[in-house]
Amino acid sequence: MPSSLSSMRITRVGATALVVAGALAISACGKKAPAQLPPDPGPATSTDTGQSSGGYGMAQPGSQADFVAKMMGADTIYFALDESTVDAQDQASLAKQAQWLQQYPNKRATIEGHCDERGTREYNIALGERRANAAKNYLASLGIDPSRITTVSYGKERPIALGSDEASWAQNRRAVTVTID
Amino acid sequence: MKITRVLALGLMLTVSGTAFAQTAPVITPPAPQDGGLEVTVSDDSAWNDLGIAITTFATDQDVPTRTNAGTTGQLGRALAQVVAGDLKNNGLFKPSGPDGLPQPAYGQIQAPDYTPWAARSADMLVQGFVRAGGDGNLTIGCYLYDVQLKQQLVKGGWQVPPSDWRRAAHKCADMVYSRLSGESPFFDSKIAYIAETGPKDHRMKRLAIMDSDGANHRFLTSGQSMALTPRYSPDYSKIMYLSYLNGQPSIYAYDLATDRQTLIARTGAPTLAPRWSPDGKWVLYSMAKGGTTDIYRISSAGGGTPQRLTNGPGINIGGSYSPDGSQIVFESDRSGSQQVYVMNSDGSNQRRISFFGGRAATPEWSPRGDQIAFTHIAGNLRVAVMNPNGGGMRHLTDSWQDEAPTWSPNGRIVQFFRTTKSTGLASIWQVDLTGRNERKLPTPVGASDPAWGPIRP
């Protein structure tokens, strides 16, 4: 049916547009953004994974260090309380990830799903899996072969923000994409 | 590890035992009433006021033993301390001794002098003996007397290897507790749990076990892979738990005799929330796939095709069998938030039972069958109980974060773990069904996910 085809195309175009808008949207969208964003990975001279064998301190193109540097925080998406919905801000981050993954078609990635500490342990492992899976499905919808992506859930066992407050919990409800070197 | 009940206890002692023939119970224990939780609860205050003197167990010959307590004389004191500790730490009765009490002579164990005990306002008297056998094994006897009636109420004797001496003391405490309360025993049992060390963002989580009083503590895993949510098999031969050993969360069965572990199912997807059926023949696990989680049943002997018990939507997880094995209580967010459901053990007739607001998680069916303990999430996380039909909800705890209840073998006490705000430090606590006698268990490091096993044979 032509109508559904064209609506699909519109969605694709929309996603591409969001890529452009993504960097701006991250700081602008306050709906559920963490009070403190994860540490800025800094300029492309980042050496935080020791993979920067390229010249002049540049991360080697296609490496996890390069991915982290290029994403500028978009390697992580955040979720509302008890939710695993990928919203507009998450879509922008995932589109940025998809762009990188399309540039390096041989790279594989793991998406780690996490929860805040205010839930029961077993349920949070299942919820973290649901979040990682939502991110994976969205990347697949952008044309990334799902066989390149695995998921793992750590539930509430690996918080990144250590406080027991709303701001910390918002940072911990996340899915982090880690490419495999 | 064998504990032998000594039946012909009279033959073990050389003193003339007029008291051995006493079998007729003099005090009628509170009659167990079917479904009458309120009745049982109100009974507590009555027997909780009983003063019980627990004296150093006497020995015929003070000789070395192969226990960590020392000679038979020292062991006699240690045995009485374990018995007193069991009763005291659980808020049961008003135990005193062995320190500060007169020590009965070996010959008095079966023929107590009641007069001084009445003067000390002790209602009950526990005496015992310990003897070393030629084979290194120990024979331990335990006697409960009613001081006012001047009569023996019950006696027990056990032959144990030196390494199991504490079990004889727990059996003695169980005998005293059961005879006086009318409840089933629970002291001679073990707890599997997760030992936690290190900072909040890099916490090491190891599988560990201990006796019901915290003794005989042992770490089972090294901590290289995160371990979570253990469950003892009903016969104590295995522990199922969640491990990140292969990167994905997967359930392993840890064999306690061989210290080997095996994956319970090769699914290619993460498995979590292991549970045993009461007869040990079945294992429940939950598997996350494609964003949904469902509960499966598989034979514990291995082999066979896993049977899927739930079929979405959302997250269906956990599962705790009713004592007769006919039903399973589990958790599902199919309604939009975590709630408690009951189904037949083949997966049929699934129905929600929690309707009191907030979220309800980690249900565990009482070994007595009359209550379901669970985590109630409404702001804070609290441990609560309800009837199997969802009525009669009561909170047992009130703290920032208490979760994952597990029942004592007799269904009188609930253990759970408490997380401290900000630090995230975890510790195991227990509380009785009345909501009283809340206390922290002694563990060498941080502790979570307690799983209380059944009474040992």
UniProtKB/TrEMBL annotation, chain A:
Subunit organization: The Tol-Pal system is composed of five core proteins: the inner membrane proteins TolA, TolQ and TolR, the periplasmic protein TolB and the outer membrane protein Pal. They form a network linking the inner and outer membranes and the peptidoglycan layer.
The protein's name in its UniProt record: Peptidoglycan-associated protein
Keyword entries, A-Z: Cell cycle, Cell division, Cell outer membrane, Lipoprotein, Membrane, Palmitate, Signal
Matches recorded under SUPFAM superfamilies: OmpA-like
Cited InterPro entries: Bact_OuterMem_StrucFunc, OMP_bac, OmpA-like, OmpA-like_sf, Pal, Pal_lipo_C
GO cellular component terms attached to this protein's record: cell outer membrane
Limits of the OmpA-like domain: 65-181
Region (Disordered): 34-60
Signal sequence segment: 1-28
Location(s) in or outside the cell: Cell outer membrane
BP-aspect Gene Ontology terms: cell division
Described function: Part of the Tol-Pal system, which plays a role in outer membrane invagination during cell division and is important for maintaining outer membrane integrity.
Gene3D superfamilies referenced in this protein's UniProt entry, alphabetically: OmpA-like domain
Family statement: Belongs to the Pal lipoprotein family.
